[in-house]
Design brief:
CATH superfamily of the largest domain: HUPs
Mean pLDDT: 91
Structural class: alpha/beta
Number of strands: 7
Shape: globular
Distance between the termini: 51 Å
Low-confidence stretches: 1-15
Helix content: 40-55%
Number of helices: 13
Oligomer: single chain
């Protein structure tokens, strides 16, 4: 292993670590490293989440300075996610750059139909294709894992069209294994809550605008300031529907906390605030697609 900086692991990390077959996870990691070493050089799409952070780290372990992590900035990328990405890079010392993407200039993205993520990834990979050509980088990779194929992922189609590599998927690594291996590597992202772009908070068919995304970003900052860990603010017109992880949901209904949530979210620009009784569900808005297909 190289001398990549390690991040401290929380005191309760062992108790919270995912339950996986360690030998199998390490075998998959060796396959991942082997696949990456066969590349001459690589750009890694890095959002700051657990998957892309682990892939960026693994690419640096395998290729050193021939690996470059790239983070795309736009109105759909929250301030918090940018801060998390910056913290990870500062702690690990990986080669990294920010670039701008312009998906909000595409009417097909703004329309926010079921293929919105396709147009987002298509724009991202267009930018990475141009950068790879200019820098003479051999390959582009992104962090889809083996669990992601079970959900609706139109962005994967864009990756296929752009010939983007999916090393975690090729190594058959699941999210729990990625978290386990990240923890063992000392990466602070090992237990980072699931994240997604701000546009994922907007129901399909509602136009995505910079103003709406900014309002959602401000509202989620309120929940974060109240020390909730896993949540989403879903924007339904003037109504903010808040999903909080089941294990944190009861605190959301405490009178003092609920008052602060309502005041803060209204201050962010929403007229009405509600807390979803079902709690946080990853990709909950995709359920509307299933209903419409019936």
């Amino acid at each position: 292993m190289s001398n990549v900086a390690r991040l401290p692991i929380a005191a309760n990390a062992a108790a919270a670590a995912p339950a996986v077959d360690a030998s199998q996870a390490f075998a998959k990691q060796e396959k991942l490293f082997g696949d990456l070493r066969r590349l001459d050089s690589v750009l890694v799409a890095f959002s700051g989440g657990a998957d892309s952070a682990y892939l960026a780290w693994a690419s640096h372990q395998a290729l050193g300075e021939r690996a470059l992590a790239i983070t795309a900035l736009s109105a759909s990328f929250s301030r918090h996610d940018r801060e998390q990405a910056e913290a990870f890079i500062a702690a690990t010392g990986l080669r990294h750059e920010f670039i701008a993407t312009h998906e909000l200039e595409n009417p097909l993205y703004v329309a926010n139909n079921a293929d919105r993520c396709y147009h987002c990834k298509d724009e991202l990979f267009d930018q990475l294709d141009a950068l790879a050509l200019a820098r003479r980088v051999a390959a582009i990779a992104y962090g889809i894992n083996a669990d992601d194929t079970r959900d609706f992922r139109p962005g994967h189609r864009a990756a296929h069209e752009h010939h983007v590599l999916a090393p975690l998927l090729d190594a058959e690594l699941y999210k729990a294994e990625i978290r386990f291996l990240s923890q063992r590597a000392g990466l602070a992202t090992w237990n980072r809550p699931a994240s997604a772009c701000l546009s994922s908070r907007v129901p399909y068919g509602t136009a995505v605008t910079p103003e709406l995304l900014e309002k959602i970003d401000r509202a989620e900052a309120v929940l974060r300031g109240l020390e909730f860990r896993q949540f989403r603010v879903r924007a339904h017109g003037e109504l903010a529907r808040i999903e909080i992880a089941p294990e944190e949901l009861a605190r959301g209904f405490e009178p003092n906390v609920s008052r602060k949530i309502a005041e803060g979210v209204k201050g962010a620009g929403f007229s009405f605030v509600t807390v979803d009784l079902e709690g946080y569900r990853q990709g909950s808005l995709n359920s509307l697609l299933k209903i419409k297909s019936l």
